[in-house]
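yo

u said u wanted the structure for the complex thing, so here. seqs first:
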Amino acid sequence: MPRSGAEARRRLQQAALELYREHGFDQTTTAEIAARAGVNERTFFRHFPDKREVLFDGEADLRAALMEAVAEAPDGLQPLDVLLCAFRRAGRILEDNRPFSEPRLQVIAKTPALRERELAKAASLTEAVADALRARGVPERLAGLAAQTGWAAFHHAAQAWIDDPSRSLEAHLSRAFDDLRTLSATMSPAQAAAESGGGRA
Amino acid sequence: MPRSGAEARRRLQQAALELYREHGFDQTTTAEIAARAGVNERTFFRHFPDKREVLFDGEADLRAALMEAVAEAPDGLQPLDVLLCAFRRAGRILEDNRPFSEPRLQVIAKTPALRERELAKAASLTEAVADALRARGVPERLAGLAAQTGWAAFHHAAQAWIDDPSRSLEAHLSRAFDDLRTLSATMSPAQAAAESGGGRA
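structre next:
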């Protein structure tokens, strides 16, 4: 039996991840997770409300890291540069914990119930990031759009890192933000096009 | 009793939306929705699998409109310009149906269960849009990022339209895409910053 609460928690997470990969999320019970972790089922529920949350334990750390990084980014940085700083810090948390975070992202990507939970968490984190940008003085309207756009690039980079682990997450992140600049730089002005009647499908 | 299936369907959607606004989504039963629509509960389940789906009936139309608009956008347009065309067309569907789509978006925004469903639908639509861009010859890597970024701007514009209905959704959409250009234009190159050690938090 694991001796400390933190150790039991870590073993439950590892056991859940293994079982979800071996048998699939839907086929795995909390009793099986507890058994593999060497604890009883009551201990599982002392740590996690359900078998989805066992894979989302790191959200509080990620949120704290993002908020801190946005608040502490150098003065005068543009919103997306602030977010690149913040996502680099968040990315290092994922990268430092790669033996867990990589299979975790793979399991989530192929399990609709986990994907739904992840999307809800991401939406909540995106709103928190937007608030943190507003607290730095980024105008209301731009803060929300910047947060959603930056999150799209972060999510895209994390997915690319899963598919191509030969590059670091940081490298994928830099590339995603550069791709975003390239994509946007080649856009036509939207309001001007709308006024002249151009660009309508 | 409504005479045709299509009429029953429309009445069920209207009744559901009214009840969700009056009493909240969680407090409303399918029996109550059926009663207000003047049909029995079996008819509800002939049209919808559950009380969440009753608000997502337009997804197939939206998907078809987006796919068609991406495929038909003029040759030579840049990826985000193609998406602006496509989201303008999708926006017109929302705008033409404003008496339903505006309160619908409000109810979704404040109901976590509906928000989760909407996020899952949006993720699926974003993947479809990325595929449609790839079919136009947009490189693999850029297609996914462009779809996610474009969707972020579309979502942002729809939210802004709910909050400020004095401007059209099309005007909000044009502004969101212009804001995206502005945000990206002021970014520093990410890979160069990473290589020189700059930009790290």
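Chain B touches chain A through 59 residues (CB under 8 Å). The first helix of chain B runs from residue 5 to 23.
cya
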